[in-house]
Amino acid sequence: MVYEYEAETEKEAIEKAAQELGLERDQFDVETLELQKKSLFKKGYAKIRVIPVDTPDHVQPEFDGKVPNATVRANNPKIVANPLPQDEFEEKLLDFVSQTILKMGYEVSVEVMFREDKKIGLKLTSPSSSILIGRKGKNLDAMQLLANVYAGHLGKEDVRVILDSENYRIRREESLVRLAYVTADKVRATRNSVLLEPMNPFERRLIHTTLNDIPDVETKSEGDGLYKQVRVIYKGVR
Is 106 within 8 Å of 126 (Cβ atoms)? Predict the structure, then answer.
């Protein structure tokens, strides 16, 4: 879910978010929406958008570091269930996503991909799927963010919406797991750290989770904003 907070300074807004959400600073990402520094005649003002990052106890299944499970989820008829909307919320959500994409100028068919507790996956089928996905899935992530904001407007703040097209999420997950292991091997061989490409919170969590049990390697996120980078570091065996 996405939250917005306001305060006189960016630091105060972040502290306010951490206190109200009950999260540590490394458990959420911050995007600065507005920032006005304090001056002689003006009060300071900061508005931020906060996106919680899943903790190990609440890792989203799409990015839990277990590629076989993701593949099973995509092919499990019990999870896929009926692709048609089953209630007013689903009808409005599917209509919002499809109309948004149609207004962008692209044909699309939207259907329910899976239903889980407080989570729903939507499948986008389009002749322009590569454009809808975008480089590194950024277009898909942006539309997914809009879908989650809209779900909140419908009173479903606790429901997470997942958008996918051409099984991109699964393919991306498998690719990142391979990248994590290859990078760990490189770090162990060179004894140097490696900084990976900018990733969204769920992709970073996948890297952290995948390498969490390797004793001589550790990971940490670096940077600001939604798309941070993961540094893989050699620490040796203790």
Answer: yes
Maximum Cα interatomic distance, the chain, rounded to a whole number of Å: 63
Reference 227, options 8, 9, 31; nearest CA is 31
**Pairing of the two strands 45-52 and 109-116:** unpaired
CA–CA gap between residue 224 and residue 209 (Å, rounded):
21
Tokens linked to 2: 């996405």
Q: What is the DSSP letter of 213?
A: T
Could you read off the pLDDT of 10-31 as tens digits, one per residue?
Answer: 788 888 887 777 777 666 777 7
pLDDT in tens, 52-74: 765 333 333 333 333 333 433 44
How many angstroms separate the Cα of 173 from the Cα of each of 65, 193, 205, 227?
Answer: 8, 22, 11, 16
Nearest CA among 175, 205, 211 for reference residue 61: 205
